[in-house]
Design a protein that fits this description.
InterPro entries: AMMECR1 (IPR023473), AMMECR1_dom_sf (IPR036071), AMMECR1_domain (IPR002733), AMMECR1_N (IPR027485), AmmeMemoSam_A (IPR027623). It is a single chain. The chain is globular. The chain has two domains: about 100 residues, Hypothetical protein ph0010, domain 1 (Glycoprotein, Type 4 Pilin, 2-Layer Sandwich); about 70 residues, Dna Ligase, domain 1, CATH 3.30.1490.150. A four-stranded antiparallel beta sheet has the order 2-1-3-8, covered by helices on one side. Strands 4-7-5-6 form a four-stranded antiparallel beta sheet, covered by helices on one side. Helix 1 packs across helix 3. It contains five helices and eight strands. The protein has about 190 residues and is of the alpha+beta class.
């Protein structure tokens, strides 16, 4: 899948990564998430775009929070999600200042999700295995998503869907039910260098 919206070049990617790091650093050192510094005055940073911010420490997940719908500017979305990943991911304690030098930031800028239409479970598996998109599962008040990067850990479509069902609070084989709704999306993903 190709990404929609403005493509971010290397300079713009670095500006967003620095923006996220500054917000996190201010929050863990000074106790606030006010924007420090500024983004370049470019239209791409003012576009309404959804984004996820993922934090890793020594190659292991340390926080990941994002939005699936474009409700605020890309700059604001990255700042808010960086702060939430660092301080409010319920799976982790808030990031301590001592951890900051070891944290690596990854940003995923999402396209608008589109419905995934499939005939049966085999067609679903086939489409997902070929495309490897980001995927949102929705059913009976349950919802979960995996970014496309999760395919690196779960390269088989059956395993990917089973884990997504578990994340949504559904039985791991619930993906075989043709009544589930899926939406797929692409991302532009970039990260800090090691």
């Amino acid at each position: 899948m190709r990404t929609q919206g403005a493509y971010l070049d290397g300079r713009q990617q670095q500006a967003l990564l620095a923006w996220a790091r500054q917000a996190i650093a201010r929050a863990v050192h000074a106790g606030d998430g006010a924007a420090g510094g500024s983004l370049p005055d470019e239209p791409v940073f003012r576009e309404k775009r959804a984004a996820f911010v993922t934090l890793t420490r020594n190659g292991r997940l340390r926080g990941c929070i994002g939005t699936l719908l474009a409700v605020e500017s890309l700059g604001d979305s990255v700042r808010h999600n960086a702060l939430n990943a660092a301080l409010r991911d319920p799976r982790f304690a808030p990031l301590a200042a001592a951890e900051l030098p070891e944290i690596r930031i990854e940003i995923s800028v999402l396209d608008a999700p589109a419905p995934l239409v499939y005939r049966d479970s085999e067609d679903l598996l086939s489409q997902l295995q070929a495309e490897r998109p980001g995927l949102i599962l929705e059913a009976d008040g349950h919802r979960a998503t995996f970014l496309p990067q999760v395919w690196a850990q779960l390269p088989e479509a059956r395993d990917f869907l089973s884990a997504l069902c578990r994340k949504a609070g559904l039985p791991m084989d619930a993906w075989q039910d043709s009544g589930l709704c899926y939406r797929r999306y692409a991302v532009q993903c970039f990260r800090e260098k090691q």
